[in-house]
Amino acid sequence: MSAAFGGVPAGGPAGFPAGGWGGGEALLLVNPTSGRGRGLQLLPRTARALRAAGLTPMVCVTDSLADATAQARAAAPGSLVAVLGGDGSLGAAAGGARESGAVVLPLAAGRGNDTVRRLGLPLDPVKAVRGLGALVVRELDLGMVNGRPYFGVANVGFDGLANEYGNGARLNLGPFVYLYGGLKAFRAWKDVTLTVSVDGLETTFPGWFVAVGNVGQYGGGLRICPEALVDDGLLDVVSLGRASIPAVVATFLRSYRGAHLGQANISFTRGSAVTISANRPLNVYADGERVAELPVTVGIAPAAVKVLVPEGSGAFG
């Protein structure tokens, strides 16, 4: 379902202000560590843009992802929560907004900003705020790793190790940070046997990674689950089995175009309940944040959170 931001017609979603948010308050959540401080750098211009849009920004510089969740949870139903941070901040705030019924405006201030990219929102937060009148409210699914919400991709395996190296990179490599991490992870990776169950159908294989996508994009542009939709109530599960190092590199390079699903060593399926385990300890990441160790259960919460997006966003069915 959708409703124009500038005014919700009669019979629209309960709790939304009939005349939009103009003249009202907006909670602006800022992650001070996103993008190596990019959120704080963008804060003054973003706050000015909100005021120019007729809103009164109530700024909250969060001290943790849990704080972002708590602040969004405390927001009034139908109120606007603008999230100036990275994918992890956005997923955390979405978990709180799911409970409060607030409407989330994603504003890019991280390194990858994959959810913002996939939804079709501007990467410039000021430009996104200035375009509020053209946005619509849509209900998005949320992925859940052991009950913890995420928007984009939950991943485990070689790419999780690459994520660790990418997050630890000293240089600001932008969208190439996870490619750097992946190349470095080759030196540390050993063969792993993964067991994946999707809606009760279990497979065990030696391989490199499993990605469970909702928005379906991560790593600064890796379209690892290129056919994922955010309103179908399903998770897209993509895994890479036994493969040579050149084949692994080719997989990630092709995933920038979403062109890897046809490879013989790639498995792709959909479902609403996914369990993952392995024969060695591995960390699970979601929205770029380490969230758990294997084994995990990944589920989907359909139409869980209201988000402002462009009307023609390609992330929807």
Structure description:
Residues about 1-20 have low confidence and may be disordered. Strand 6 (about 135-145) and strand 7 (about 150) form a beta hairpin. It contains eight helices and 17 strands. The radius of gyration is 19 Å and the shape is globular. Helix 2 (about 65-75) packs parallel to helix 3 (about 85-100). The chain has about 325 residues and is of the alpha+beta class. The chain starts with a strand and ends in a 7-residue tail after the last strand. About 50% of the residues are buried. The protein has helices at about 40-50, 65-75, 85-100, 115-120, 125-130, 160-165, 175-185, 245-255, and strands at about 1-5, 25-30, 55-60, 80-85, 105-110, 135-145, 150, 155, 190-200, 200-205, 210-215, 235-240, 265-270, 275-280, 285, 290-295, 295-310. Strands 1, 2, 3, 4, 5, 6, 7, 9, 10, 14 and 17 form an eleven-stranded mixed sheet that branches.
| Whole-number mean pLDDT | 89
Shape: globular
Q: Give the distance, in angstroms, between the N- and C-terminal Cα atoms.
A: 11 Å
Number of helices: 8
Order of helices and strands: EEHEHEHEHHEEEHHEEEEHEEEEE
Key terms:
single chain, six-stranded antiparallel β-sheet, 317 residues, alpha+beta, 17 strands
